[in-house]
Design brief:
The strands form 4 sheets. The chain has a 6-stranded antiparallel beta sheet with strand order 1-8-7-6-3-2. The chain has 13 helices and 14 strands. It has 2 domains: 228 residues, 3-Layer(aba) Sandwich (Extracellular Endonuclease, Chain A), CATH 3.40.570; 114 residues, no CATH class. The longest helix is centred in the N-terminal third of the chain and has 24 residues. It is of the alpha+beta class. About 18% of the residues have low confidence.
């Protein structure tokens, strides 16, 4: 009897142990959930110098396995990674380096397949970030023409100033250039940009990317973010980021803010209205009219009329030689001596003709001006030193 009871207790004990083992094995743990919005909030609170786009630097980043559409969805917001208040005021230079000229791309955003992505317009009809991986396959065909139609982006005004190349202050400015994407009249890709922003600010970087892609057949991550302050309809400028994928940034690697400004024009960014703001040398054309006659009538005519009459009047019978000095002294000095303004000081005002293509400046009467294409010709009133600071070189023919 005792032996039977012992067997029953043993069986009961084994059953209890087996039940506890099964219960422990079936216990479930709670999963760890990642909250993307909490990550974004952390980034936005960091200062530009503290913000870190990814654990790997752009030079170390390799293309992710994400598809282009996935890369576009993971688009970070560059406006959260820098403050417009930390950008220097416009002082005549077209762009300003941001984040030590290193782009804000994360490793998830870097892919090696071409794509384009454009933000929806906001409630004020303003463009947002345009993001793309530039490759040969999305560039326009050779004979394809750029057309922007009659789009009127926020802040657009048809304002003209005579001294601006092409006259018009504003252009319909592509965020991602037509030369890189083939994108034409897309309202999500066009902002109101000054001629200066278009030609001096963005164009050099667009050309650099285009030439690199066509030469290497590689891809370039390219992001353009228009920066609108408060409720302004006109962007203060655009943030450009570029990074070549296959060579990890060796060919293309930049992060710059391009100013939406125009020299000698004061712009109201609330609505795009503007007014002329010429430098103190506005009276330059009148000031230059005086030196030219003095240069032609004072030095050379006196130098030529004095010796010749003395040499010819020595033999008194040859009194008929008097008309000859008059005939020779009037026309000849005018041609060579009209170039005398070349001796002006650097701080004197004058009117010059700028060649925006060759970056050389000339006097208006220079023969090179007659051969210059109208689209490259720009009149400028100011001092010689101001033009030199703008990066122009004097013409070697007229030597201004």
């Amino acid at each position: 009897m005792n032996q039977l009871n012992n067997k029953r207790f043993l069986a009961l004990g084994l059953s209890v142990i087996l039940f506890l083992s099964i219960a422990a094995g079936c216990k479930k743990t709670q999963p760890v959930v990642s909250h993307p919005h909490e990550t974004a909030a952390t980034i936005s609170e960091a200062t530009p110098s503290e913000a870190t786009p990814s654990e790997a630097t752009p030079s170390e980043a390799t293309p992710s396995e994400a598809t282009p559409s996935e890369a576009a969805k993971k688009l970070s917001n560059p406006k959260e990674l820098f403050r417009i208040s930390e950008i220097a005021s416009f002082s005549g230079k077209p762009h300003f380096a941001v984040n030590d000229n290193k782009p804000f791309f994360t490793t998830d955003e870097i892919v090696s397949k071409s794509f384009e992505s454009y933000s929806e317009l906001d409630k004020l009809k303003r463009c947002g970030t345009a993001f793309a991986c530039i490759g040969e396959d999305i560039m326009p065909q050779k004979n394809e023409k750029n057309e922007t139609g009659n789009l009127k982006p926020s802040g657009f005004q048809t304002t003209k100033y005579d001294y601006i190349d092409g006259k018009y202050l504003y252009n319909r400015c592509h965020l991602i250039a037509f030369s890189l994407s083939g994108e034409k009249a897309n309202e999500k890709n066009i902002i109101t940009g000054t001629r200066y922003l278009n030609n001096e600010g963005m164009l050099p970087f667009e050309k650099k990317i285009q030439e690199y892609v066509l030469k290497t057949h590689n891809h370039v991550m390219y992001r353009v973010t228009p920066i609108f302050e408060k409720e302004n309809l006109l962007a203060t400028g655009v943030l450009l980021e570029g990074y070549s994928v296959e060579d990890k940034g060796k060919g293309i690697n930049f992060n710059v803010f391009c100013y939406n400004a125009q020299p000698y024009v004061t712009i109201n960014y609330k609505d795009g209205t503007s007014k002329e703001n010429q430098p103190p040398t506005t009276a330059a054309p009148k000031a230059t009219a005086a030196p030219k006659p003095k240069a032609t009538t004072a030095p050379k005519p006196k130098a030529t009329t004095a010796p010749k009459p003395k040499a010819t009047t020595a033999p008194k019978p040859k009194a008929t030689t008097a008309p000859k000095p008059k005939a020779t002294t009037a026309p000849k000095p005018k041609t060579p001596t009209v170039q005398e303004p070349a001796n002006n000081g650097n701080n004197l005002s004058a009117t010059y003709i700028l060649n925006t293509n060759t970056k050389k400046f000339h006097y208006s009467y220079c023969d090179s001006v007659k051969k210059m294409s109208e689209k490259n010709k720009q009149a400028y009133s100011g001092s010689r030193e101001e033009i030199l600071r703008m990066g122009y070189e004097p013409c070697k023919r007229c030597n201004p």
